[in-house]
Amino acid sequence: GQSLEQPSEVTAVEGAIVQINCTYQTSGFYGLSWYQQHDGGAPTFLSYNALDGLEETGRFSSFLSRSDSYGYLLLQELQMKDSASYFCAVREWKDSNYQLIWGAGTKLIIKP
Amino acid sequence: DAGVIQSPRHEVTEMGQEVTLRCKPISGHDYLFWYRQTMMRGLELLIYFNNNVPIDDSGMPEDRFSAKMPNASFSTLKIQPSEPRDSAVYFCASTLDRGTPSTDTQYFGPGTRLTVL
Fold first, then answer.
1. Which end of chain B is more exposed for a tag (fewer CB within 10 A), N or C?
2. CB-CB contact of A60 with A74 (8 Å)
3. In the predicted model, what is the mean pLDDT of chain A?
4. Structural element, H or E, at residue A83
């Protein structure tokens, strides 16, 4: 079956670096996405990895290893505004149609 | 573009009443998704459309839920009759499929917070 595993909660200190892991088990894998959601807000897209390796966008980076069915989101120079939930999602094709399978989300708590 | 538009933003209704949630996707997007989010169950995909055609409605909880997309710029999610356990935030999202491999981005609306008393 399809499943995504990510930690339910991660705590870090302002200015530090934090890594949020995501392991997946799906069929027809095409790519791994990351979304950020602040309390009371809507999910917003952060990054997408279709190929192995690291993608960097400012303070955020995302990594994918297709052979290990594993990816992570790396947040550097943490700021209080980064306190949010982070979701990994796998893009796959099923019956010739697009699907996005979502993880349960990781709540990132940042302490001053 | 104004982004994905949802209405109403908040809805409070009584058990047994019909509820209709509305969504206008981003112009030109060919996929539209309806999600439900609760603390207990997280983000759940209810149904999605491709070019106005429902593709997968396996996430729709039961027959009380129905969704339509009469044209490329409008979709509705209807609950009839509503029950207290339907209380949640309902999100609509849209995306443009550019083929694979490609950047994948779903654009979410602000959500409708539904409370069924």
1. N
2. yes
3. 92
4. none
The residues near A43 (Cβ < 8 Å, ≥ 6 apart) are: A35, A36, A37, A87, B43, B91, B93, B106, B108
The 10s digit of each residue's pLDDT in A41-50 is 999 999 999 8
Residues of A in contact with B31 (CB under 8 A): 98
CB contact under 8 A, B101 and A97: no
For residues A98 and A73, give the distance between their C-alpha atoms in angstroms, rounded to a whole number.
23
Q: Which residues of A touch B107 (CB under 8 A)?
A: 45
pLDDT for res A96? 73
Quote the tokens at residue A26: 């799906």
A to B CB pairs, distance under 8 Å = 54
Q: What is the dihedral of CA B95, B96, B98, B99, to 10 degrees?
A: 60
